[in-house]
Amino acid sequence: MTDLKLSAVEKAYGKVKVLSDIDLEIKTGELVVFVGPSGCGKSTLLRMIAGLERITGGTLEIDGMRVNDMPPSQRGIAMVFQSYALYPHMSVYDNMAFSLRIAGQGKEAIDKAVRAVAEKLQLGSLLDRLPKELSGGQRQRVAIGRAIVRDPKVFLFDEPLSNLDAALRVATRLEIAQLKEAMPETTMIYVTHDQVEAMTLASRIVVLAGGGIAQVGAPLDLYERPNSTFVARFIGSPAMNLLSGEVVGTGKTTKIRADQGGGIITAAIPTQKGDEGMKVEIGIRPEDFVAAEGDDFAFEGRVGITEALGEVTLLYFDSKSSTGDDPVIAKLSGIHPSKLGQVLRLGAAPEKIHLFHKGISLLYRGDKVFLPNVAPH
Amino acid sequence: MSPIMQAALTIVIGVGGCVGYFYLSNQILDRVLFPARGANAGRNINRANAIRPWLFLFPAIFALALYLAYPVFETLRLSLTDRSLGGAFVGLENYARMTDDPKFWEALRNNFLWLLIVPAASTAFGLLAAQLTDRIRWGNIAKSLIFMPMAISFVGAAVIFKLVYDARPEDVAQIGILNAVYLQLCGDSPITWLTVPFWNNIFLIIVLIWIQTGFAMVILSAALRGIPEETIEAAIVDGANPFQIFFKIKVPQIAGTIVVVWTTITIVVLKVFDIVFAMTNGQWETQVLANYMYDKLFRANDWGVGSAAAMVIMILVLPILVWNVYNARREMR
Ligand SMILES: Nc1ncnc2c1ncn2[C@@H]1O[C@H](COP(=O)(O)OP(=O)(O)OP(=O)(O)O)[C@@H](O)[C@H]1O
Ligand SMILES: [Mg+2]
Q: Which ligand is closest to the CA of A39, given by its number?
């Protein structure tokens, strides 16, 4: 049982507040991923949990005990650093044995523990090498091994794969997934820039931005039901298109007239009487666009650049989405025979359409939603 | 002309001469010897560039050859001849006379003592100072103070410490701080510290430690800063306490630099002369090799034994020097 609870946690450097009002509960065995734009405080939050950074406000509890002032080594955590942070003067074996020696364990117990972990991570033949004699992937495994040896209750990863090349990244990502599977009782917190890592590894994703938590949820939850335009555009690549429109019909489903083109579309989102005339932003993911039949189109535009990737075709339209600079993008499956300058009408299935009012999703009306004051990309 | 004017003039002529040499020689190379114009412009540029490094290196190479390389061979030759016989070749006789001299063995033994204490103490104190001043606000002031003795010449330092160790007659106020403190605490009568055999060696050694600690501190401080912060944080998470972090994580990572500092100070120690010369002149069993050499060469006018002593110093320094350069190069990579 290792529940982690952050209540109103805050971090300030002097007068500058980097993080504020962080409320988060993490259950035993979860793999929680922190994502967010660069500089939003992911590492800072992780390091506060580790105890490497002082918590300037709020409380951090592990297993119901306040640990704000507990030194890192007593919190039952282990950390894998972005640069691996292996001790360069020690062999792989000594790197992994270091924490156990510090803890004063017996020689035989240490040997057993180190060899068991080395076996698990296929480091058996590398035990006598120095870190500089290892490849990037091997170093990463040693760093993970060094963390595992301590048998921590909470694992902290700070962008562990960002120094690896693309192929190795995929392989190591799978290894981490397997590792998690093999240690169901261990809680993991993982910081990453990479959406694919976040979506594939996480049991829950925490979107951090602008000094607060924008949304917490299961990966597909965030993808399907983002609570704000920020999260909507942050999750998914290319980012969701936003088009301005106006509610013209309410009920179990909502009818909206798109400003651009003027077609009437239906969204599977309930609205109340009286919402007619409300200005909304229509969110449609590039991959949800389909060619529209008749007059029920959400968008009409002239094709600018096309990128044919074989499995999909990306169309960049001349028209801008309602965010301002970004072009409307459609991701159509297969090879699409569109030409430069061709005018296309696109729509989307009602359940694929998102609606936002003043940045907040209509699905979350009345909920407390934190709107980060920054751009998602 | 006042000495200050002389010094200023020397500096102006020296620096101006250097600048002038580089500027003019470069001009001659580019304008007169291989001008970058005419039919052979391209070829001339290449030739000028091939010669330029040598042109700039020439003053240094020339000075090194004249004042370093040539004296080595000349000293070797002198150590095999006898002045009183009109410079006749006498083989290894000078070396034999030297090894028969108890003063030589005293010097060798004392040098060994210096060698044992100074590099170790300076490096240890320097490392300590570097670590302790690293994170505090007034650390830089402390560092400047510790580094300051480096700016004082050895003779200057010797004079300062001569005053520290000074002894006055019993009924007069002591101006030497050591005696003043000693009389306050436990002593009955002032001690002339520099005449107490064996311990007077230690008193001389302290002067060099005082000077060299600043050097060690500056180099080691830079090395400590170069240690990746994350390895220290990893050690904190692993549960290491500050002492374990220092001795098991930090020190091993700067071991290479420690060796370079150690050997550099070792070379300084082997050549130590000024401090002994100015403070005891080798009396009361404080002789060291360099001062012994000086004694023989310029006081006894015995160039044979003096040169032999010089050769001994060189042979002792050489392997450490080679090792030092090897390590320093490895550190730089
Ligand atoms: N020592 C410090 N003093 C002042 N501000 C700091 C300090 N350390 C970090 N910050 C600020 O805190 C914010 C969060 O930094 P942090 O490293 O946590 O970002 P991050 O989300 O991990 O970014 P990245 O994705 O680039 O790693 C940044 O805006 C940074 O400028
Ligand atoms: Mg970071």
A: 1
Rounded CA gap, B71 and B76, in Å? 8
| CB contacts < 8 A (A, B) | 59
Domain A230-364 fold is OB fold (Dihydrolipoamide Acetyltransferase, E2P) (2.40.50)
Contact B238 A99 (CB under 8 A): yes
Put simply, the answer to whether A150 touches B233 (Cβ < 8 Å) is no
Which residue from B minimizes the CA distance to A147?
A: B238
**Res. A2 pLDDT band, cuts 50 70 90:** low
Phi/psi at A133 (nearest 5 deg)?
A: -95, 10
Ligand 1 in reach of A192 Cβ (< 6 A)? no
Fold of domain A4-229:
Rossmann fold (3.40.50)
What is the phi-psi region of residue A84: left when phi exceeds 0, alpha when psi lies from -120 to 50, beta otherwise?
left
Q: State whether residue B227 sits within 8 Å of chain A by CB.
A: no
pLDDT band of residue B8 (cuts 50, 70, 90) is very high
Q: Which ligand is nearest to the CA of B229?
A: 1
Q: Among B230, B232, B238, which would you mutate to test the A interface (most chain A Cβ atoms within 10 Å of its Cβ)?
A: B238
Strand partners of residue A156: A79, A189
> What are the residues of chain A with a beta carbon less than 8 Å away from any beta carbon of chain B?
50-52, 71-74, 77-79, 81-83, 85-90, 98-99, 102-103, 146, 150
- Among A144, A151, A99, A153, CA closest to A123: A144
| DSSP structure string for B245-274 | IIIIIIHHHTHHHHHHHHHHHHHHHHT--H
- In this structure, the answer to whether residues B50 and B114 fall within a common structural domain is no
- Is the CB–ligand 1 distance for residue A39 below 6 Å? yes
DSSP character string of A1-30: ---EEEEEEEEEETTEEEEEEEEEEE-TT-
Tokens 């301590």 belong to residue: A150
| Residue finishing a domain among B46, B78, B110 | B78
With cut-offs at 50, 70 and 90, classify the pLDDT of residue B121. very high
Q: What is the pLDDT of residue B195?
A: 81
User: Coil, strand or helix: which one is B42?
Assistant: helix
Task: Supply the range of the domain harboring residue B269.
Answer: 93-157+190-332
- Which residue type is seen at B223? A
- From the centroid of its chain, how far is CA A194? 7
Question: pLDDT of A126-160, one tens digit each?
Answer: 899 999 999 888 898 899 999 989 888 899 999 88
> Is B228 touching A (CB cutoff 8 A)?
yes
Ligand 1 pocket: which of A10, A11, A42 to mutate (most atoms <8 Å of CB)? A42
Query: How sure is the predictor about B139, in pLDDT bands with cuts at 50, 70 and 90?
Result: confident
pLDDT in tens, B74-119: 888 888 888 777 777 787 888 888 888 888 888 888 888 988 899 9
Q: Cβ(A50)–Cβ(A73) under 8 Å?
A: no
| Ligand 1 pocket, residue A18 CB under 6 Å | yes
B72 and B208, same domain (yes or no) = no
Q: What is the pLDDT of residues A74-130, one digit of tens each?
A: 888 999 988 889 999 999 999 999 999 998 888 999 999 999 999 888 888 889 999
Question: For residue A377, what are the contacts with CB-CB under 8 A and spacing of at least 6?
Answer: A37, A233, A234, A239
- Whether the CB-CB separation of B150 and B143 falls below 8 Å is answered with no
Q: Is B226 on the interface with A (CB under 8 A)?
A: no
Minimal Cβ distance to B239: which of A52, A81, A99: A99
Residues 6+ apart with CB under 8 A from A243: A258, A259, A260, A281, A282, A284, A298, A299, A321, A322, A328
